[in-house]
Amino acid sequence: MNIFLIGPMGAGKSTIGRLLSQELKLEFLDSDREIENRAGADIPWIFDVEGEEGFRDREESVIKDLAEKKSIVLSTGGGAVIRSANRACLQGNGTVVYLETSVEQQLDRTARDKNRPLLQTENPRQVLEDLMAKRHPLYLEAADIIIKTDKRHPKTVASEIIKQMKAKSPLHGE
Asked: What is the pLDDT along the chain (174 residues), one digit of tens a residue?
């Protein structure tokens, strides 16, 4: 069983992913951390040097590798769904969960985070709104399960994901 978390930055993918992995006794992986580990550099540096296209190439390679593992919870970057190869890879190797959140919630959660290159701008709200307009249909297309995260505790969200997954197909050993 693999669980792949998709959604915009600030949706809680990493936090909820860690909780899910603990609860279900699965390995937790974060595609952005894996990209940084393999590159030996942080994401803002990769964007600076290679541009978004270079970053997306690295992301596609990492997602392909990680999605082939077994019994994992994978938190993906907000833009992972841009490439159809990533959507197909995730859909073909596990349950894809879209953590849906509002632009307001994203702004609250990302306001002080300097590790988000796309938000280092005069108007981060506009950037988030533009990204949501482009990516929301792709998140919906890729998702098996959709969970709203606004103003909800991460443990509550993790519990709901588990409940919905059990309803779709009983987890082994339950």
From this structure: 899 999 999 899 999 999 999 999 999 999 999 999 999 999 989 999 999 999 999 999 999 999 999 999 999 999 999 999 999 999 999 999 999 999 999 988 887 777 777 777 888 899 999 999 999 999 999 999 999 999 899 999 999 999 999 888 755 544
How far CA 55 is from CA of 8, 41, 66, in Å, comes to 17, 11, 16
pTM score, two decimals?
0.93
Q: For residues 173 and 110, give the distance between their C-alpha atoms in angstroms, rounded to a whole number.
A: 38
Place of tokens 């936090």: 15
Which residues are paired to 6 by β-bridges? 98
Buried b / exposed e across 56-80, counting CB within 10 Å, b at 16+? bebbbebbeebbeeeebbbbbbbbb
* Burial (CB count <10 Å: 0-12, 13-18, 19+), residue 164: middle
What's the count of helices (H) and strands (E) in the chain, helices before strands? 7, 5
